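Appendix B, example 12.
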Amino acid sequence: MFFKINILILILFSFVNASFEKVSIGTIDKHYKISKEQIYSILKEIEFTFEKELDKDVFDYADDGKPINFIYLPPSKLENEISRKISRIESKKQKIQELKDYFPNKKNDIENTKEILSKQQDELNNKVRKYNNYIKTINSKKSITKEELNKVKTYSKKEKTVLNDEIKKLKAKRRELRREIIKFNSKVTSFNNLINDLNRLNIQLEAMNRNYSKIRGRTFGLQTIEKKTTFKDGKKKEEQKISISMDKIEIYGFKNLDELKIILAHEIAHLVGLPHVNEKNALMNPIIQKSQLEKGLNLTPADIQLFDKYLD
């Protein structure tokens, strides 16, 4: 049984008040092989998608906008172990596939060889039977001339040499066939061991994934608390107002530009005030959704509802 491996990618966020924002491209760690032009192009694609699906401006690019910084974080020990485990799993899968390709052709070769050797054995048995019958006939004669005896000896010697040579060749072919069968069975055992190893590695990887979350991006802000004391009907009343102003986005990793687009769109939505939503396939789901990566950036009804609720 094969297990599909998916590493959950989490994007963290704290709830904020919604507002239109301006963004800019900040620092880019040299670890990332990406240009400002590529990032700008992705931001324009996100802006187009938001405006098209929401029919309103959500954010804009500006030199004085809030920065998007690309920060490199070295992999954790657990992340490195997960990478090694995935590498071993891929290696096992490749070997399993190679054996799957090997078995049908090799089995067919063995069966064909068995059939050929069986026919050769039948032909050889007929020759031996014919020779034995000839000798039996000669031995049944009561008398035989010296000249006939010499002919019989010459024929017998020649025929026995031919038959013994064919017997040796056939035995050699049978030994080779046995070696191929042993080799085939050994590969079957290896295949079964590989399957067991793969299942074991997958179980280990699933356990490791349950204790692991990879943060791809994060939105940061400043929280201010305003306290106000009022008196009504001689009673003291204290009120507290909390406001959060988001001031930057940090990106910590992406596999490709398509994934970066989803991460940036998610974080920009946080920047303008959207919280998470536990809806499958939604952009604002805290876990990057497979559909967003496969089908491309899109807003689900749950996402649009969030924008309508939190963005004026």
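Helices lie at 36-54, 77-140, 146-210, 257-271, 290-295, 301-310. The first strand starts at residue 9 and ends at 12.
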